[in-house]
Design brief:
The complex is a heterodimer of chains A (about 80) and B (about 140). Helices cover about 60% and strands about 0% of the residues of chain A. With about 80 residues, chain A is mainly alpha-helical. With about 140 residues, chain B is of the alpha+beta class. Chain B has a 5-stranded antiparallel sheet with strand order 1-3-4-5-2, with helices on one face. In chain B, a hairpin with a 5-residue loop joins strand 4 and strand 5. The longest helix of chain B is centred in the middle third of the chain and has 14 residues. The two termini of chain B are about 20 Å apart. Classes of the chains: A mainly alpha (about 80), B alpha+beta (about 140). At the A-B interface, helix 2 and helix 3 of A face strand 3 of B.
Chain lengths: ~80, ~140
Protein backbone atom coordinates (compact mmCIF):
# COMPACT_ATOMS: atom_id res chain seq x y z
CA UNK A 1 0.00 0.00 0.00
CA UNK A 2 1.52 3.33 -1.02
CA UNK A 3 1.52 6.41 1.14
CA UNK A 4 -1.52 7.98 -0.53
CA UNK A 5 -3.55 4.80 -0.12
CA UNK A 6 -2.70 4.73 3.58
CA UNK A 7 -3.73 8.36 3.90
CA UNK A 8 -6.97 7.78 2.03
CA UNK A 9 -7.70 4.87 4.33
CA UNK A 10 -7.19 7.22 7.29
CA UNK A 11 -9.38 10.05 5.97
CA UNK A 12 -12.19 7.91 4.56
CA UNK A 13 -14.00 7.51 7.93
CA UNK A 14 -13.88 11.30 8.35
CA UNK A 15 -15.43 11.94 4.93
CA UNK A 16 -18.09 9.29 5.54
CA UNK A 17 -18.96 10.74 8.94
CA UNK A 18 -19.10 14.37 7.78
CA UNK A 19 -21.15 13.63 4.67
CA UNK A 20 -23.18 10.90 6.38
CA UNK A 21 -22.36 8.56 3.51
CA UNK A 22 -21.25 5.11 4.66
CA UNK A 23 -20.73 4.07 1.04
CA UNK A 24 -18.57 7.02 0.00
CA UNK A 25 -15.43 5.93 -1.84
CA UNK A 26 -12.63 8.44 -1.32
CA UNK A 27 -10.01 8.76 -4.03
CA UNK A 28 -7.36 11.28 -4.98
CA UNK A 29 -9.66 12.63 -7.70
CA UNK A 30 -12.71 13.08 -5.49
CA UNK A 31 -13.95 16.69 -5.32
CA UNK A 32 -16.94 18.65 -4.04
CA UNK A 33 -18.87 18.46 -7.30
CA UNK A 34 -19.05 14.68 -7.01
CA UNK A 35 -20.61 14.58 -3.54
CA UNK A 36 -24.00 16.24 -3.26
CA UNK A 37 -23.67 16.49 0.52
CA UNK A 38 -20.44 18.51 0.14
CA UNK A 39 -21.99 21.93 0.81
CA UNK A 40 -20.43 24.94 2.52
CA UNK A 41 -21.42 23.90 6.04
CA UNK A 42 -20.18 20.35 5.59
CA UNK A 43 -16.99 21.71 4.07
CA UNK A 44 -16.36 23.61 7.31
CA UNK A 45 -17.05 20.46 9.32
CA UNK A 46 -14.72 18.49 7.07
CA UNK A 47 -11.86 20.94 7.60
CA UNK A 48 -12.49 21.01 11.35
CA UNK A 49 -12.48 17.20 11.48
CA UNK A 50 -9.30 16.93 9.39
CA UNK A 51 -7.50 19.50 11.52
CA UNK A 52 -8.57 17.55 14.60
CA UNK A 53 -7.43 14.23 13.16
CA UNK A 54 -4.01 15.45 12.04
CA UNK A 55 -3.41 18.03 14.78
CA UNK A 56 -2.75 20.83 12.34
CA UNK A 57 -4.27 24.06 11.06
CA UNK A 58 -4.80 24.92 7.42
CA UNK A 59 -4.23 28.44 6.16
CA UNK A 60 -6.76 30.14 3.91
CA UNK A 61 -4.21 29.84 1.09
CA UNK A 62 -4.02 26.09 1.62
CA UNK A 63 -7.80 25.84 1.64
CA UNK A 64 -7.93 27.67 -1.67
CA UNK A 65 -5.57 25.09 -3.17
CA UNK A 66 -7.75 22.17 -2.10
CA UNK A 67 -9.69 21.45 -5.25
CA UNK A 68 -9.69 17.68 -4.83
CA UNK A 69 -8.64 15.07 -2.27
CA UNK A 70 -5.24 14.70 -3.92
CA UNK A 71 -4.53 18.36 -3.16
CA UNK A 72 -5.44 17.76 0.47
CA UNK A 73 -3.00 14.85 0.65
CA UNK A 74 -0.24 17.00 -0.87
CA UNK A 75 -0.86 19.74 1.68
CA UNK A 76 -0.88 17.30 4.59
CA UNK A 77 2.44 15.96 3.37
CA UNK A 78 4.01 19.44 3.06
CA UNK A 79 2.83 20.25 6.58
CA UNK A 80 4.76 17.25 7.85
CA UNK A 81 1.83 15.80 9.77
CA UNK A 82 1.78 12.51 7.85
CA UNK B 1 -14.38 39.45 27.70
CA UNK B 2 -16.38 40.20 24.57
CA UNK B 3 -15.56 37.75 21.79
CA UNK B 4 -15.89 39.45 18.43
CA UNK B 5 -13.75 37.32 16.15
CA UNK B 6 -12.10 33.94 16.06
CA UNK B 7 -8.80 35.55 17.07
CA UNK B 8 -10.36 36.14 20.50
CA UNK B 9 -11.02 32.42 21.02
CA UNK B 10 -8.30 30.26 22.56
CA UNK B 11 -8.19 26.55 23.30
CA UNK B 12 -9.05 25.93 26.94
CA UNK B 13 -11.21 29.03 27.32
CA UNK B 14 -14.12 28.01 29.54
CA UNK B 15 -17.37 29.29 31.00
CA UNK B 16 -19.54 27.77 33.72
CA UNK B 17 -23.05 28.46 34.90
CA UNK B 18 -25.28 26.90 37.53
CA UNK B 19 -28.95 26.26 36.87
CA UNK B 20 -31.87 24.16 38.03
CA UNK B 21 -35.16 23.36 36.33
CA UNK B 22 -38.50 23.96 38.05
CA UNK B 23 -41.79 22.15 37.54
CA UNK B 24 -43.03 25.23 35.69
CA UNK B 25 -40.06 24.95 33.29
CA UNK B 26 -41.00 21.35 32.63
CA UNK B 27 -44.66 22.20 32.11
CA UNK B 28 -43.79 24.97 29.65
CA UNK B 29 -41.39 22.72 27.73
CA UNK B 30 -43.93 19.86 27.62
CA UNK B 31 -46.40 22.20 25.96
CA UNK B 32 -43.83 23.62 23.56
CA UNK B 33 -42.53 20.19 22.59
CA UNK B 34 -46.00 18.62 22.70
CA UNK B 35 -44.60 15.87 24.89
CA UNK B 36 -47.02 14.88 27.68
CA UNK B 37 -44.96 11.85 28.79
CA UNK B 38 -45.94 11.35 32.47
CA UNK B 39 -42.42 10.60 33.66
CA UNK B 40 -41.71 14.34 33.43
CA UNK B 41 -44.79 15.65 35.27
CA UNK B 42 -46.35 12.85 37.32
CA UNK B 43 -44.24 12.15 40.40
CA UNK B 44 -46.13 8.98 41.31
CA UNK B 45 -45.58 7.61 37.82
CA UNK B 46 -41.88 8.51 37.90
CA UNK B 47 -41.48 6.73 41.25
CA UNK B 48 -43.26 3.67 39.90
CA UNK B 49 -40.60 3.60 37.20
CA UNK B 50 -37.87 3.58 39.83
CA UNK B 51 -36.89 7.26 39.82
CA UNK B 52 -36.94 9.43 42.93
CA UNK B 53 -38.87 12.27 41.24
CA UNK B 54 -39.93 13.57 37.85
CA UNK B 55 -37.21 13.65 35.20
CA UNK B 56 -36.26 16.80 33.34
CA UNK B 57 -36.58 16.32 29.59
CA UNK B 58 -33.24 15.42 28.04
CA UNK B 59 -33.81 18.02 25.34
CA UNK B 60 -34.58 20.62 28.00
CA UNK B 61 -31.35 19.88 29.88
CA UNK B 62 -29.39 20.36 26.67
CA UNK B 63 -31.32 23.51 25.72
CA UNK B 64 -29.39 25.64 28.22
CA UNK B 65 -26.39 25.32 25.95
CA UNK B 66 -28.23 27.43 23.40
CA UNK B 67 -27.87 30.43 25.69
CA UNK B 68 -24.36 29.62 26.84
CA UNK B 69 -23.06 29.15 23.30
CA UNK B 70 -25.04 32.02 21.83
CA UNK B 71 -24.38 34.64 24.46
CA UNK B 72 -21.20 33.68 26.30
CA UNK B 73 -18.82 31.28 24.55
CA UNK B 74 -18.23 31.62 21.65
CA UNK B 75 -20.96 34.27 21.83
CA UNK B 76 -23.18 36.49 19.79
CA UNK B 77 -20.94 36.74 16.75
CA UNK B 78 -21.31 33.04 15.97
CA UNK B 79 -24.03 30.66 14.86
CA UNK B 80 -24.51 27.06 15.84
CA UNK B 81 -23.37 24.65 13.14
CA UNK B 82 -23.48 21.22 14.75
CA UNK B 83 -24.17 19.76 18.16
CA UNK B 84 -24.11 16.22 19.52
CA UNK B 85 -24.77 15.14 23.05
CA UNK B 86 -25.39 12.13 25.24
CA UNK B 87 -27.68 12.12 28.25
CA UNK B 88 -25.75 9.95 30.68
CA UNK B 89 -27.83 10.06 33.87
CA UNK B 90 -31.31 11.18 34.96
CA UNK B 91 -31.78 14.85 35.80
CA UNK B 92 -34.38 15.66 38.45
CA UNK B 93 -36.54 18.70 39.04
CA UNK B 94 -34.82 21.20 41.30
CA UNK B 95 -31.40 19.59 41.04
CA UNK B 96 -28.56 22.09 40.80
CA UNK B 97 -26.67 21.57 37.57
CA UNK B 98 -23.32 23.00 36.57
CA UNK B 99 -22.98 23.69 32.87
CA UNK B 100 -19.49 23.89 31.38
CA UNK B 101 -18.50 24.98 27.89
CA UNK B 102 -14.83 24.66 26.99
CA UNK B 103 -13.02 25.43 23.74
CA UNK B 104 -11.53 22.23 22.35
CA UNK B 105 -10.41 23.30 18.89
CA UNK B 106 -10.11 26.48 16.87
CA UNK B 107 -10.21 26.17 13.08
CA UNK B 108 -9.38 29.73 12.10
CA UNK B 109 -9.24 29.14 8.34
CA UNK B 110 -12.94 28.29 8.28
CA UNK B 111 -13.93 30.47 11.25
CA UNK B 112 -15.12 27.54 13.31
CA UNK B 113 -14.79 26.66 16.99
CA UNK B 114 -15.31 23.21 18.52
CA UNK B 115 -16.49 23.19 22.12
CA UNK B 116 -16.81 20.44 24.70
CA UNK B 117 -20.10 20.54 26.59
CA UNK B 118 -20.65 19.05 30.04
CA UNK B 119 -23.33 19.10 32.70
CA UNK B 120 -22.63 17.88 36.23
CA UNK B 121 -25.20 17.41 38.98
CA UNK B 122 -24.80 18.41 42.61
CA UNK B 123 -23.50 14.91 43.41
CA UNK B 124 -20.53 15.56 41.15
CA UNK B 125 -21.82 13.16 38.53
CA UNK B 126 -21.64 14.06 34.85
CA UNK B 127 -25.17 13.82 33.47
CA UNK B 128 -24.56 15.06 29.94
CA UNK B 129 -21.59 15.37 27.63
CA UNK B 130 -21.48 16.76 24.15
CA UNK B 131 -19.62 18.56 21.43
CA UNK B 132 -20.67 21.60 19.46
CA UNK B 133 -19.29 23.42 16.47
CA UNK B 134 -20.00 27.12 16.07
CA UNK B 135 -18.97 29.43 13.28
CA UNK B 136 -18.17 33.11 12.92
CA UNK B 137 -19.52 34.97 9.93
CA UNK B 138 -16.63 35.95 7.72
Amino acid sequence: MNNNQELIKRITPIFREVFNRADLVVSEELNATQVKEWDSLNHISLIVALEGEFGCEFSTEELAKMQKVGDLLDILRTKGVV
Amino acid sequence: MQIRSIEDVKIGLEVQEKFSFSRDDIKAFAELATDPAPIHQNTAFAKEQGYRDCLVFGFLVASKFSGLLGSRLPGAYTVLQTVQWKNLKPVYVGETLTYTVRVKQVAASVGAVVLDLRVDNDQGETVLTGVSQCGFRK
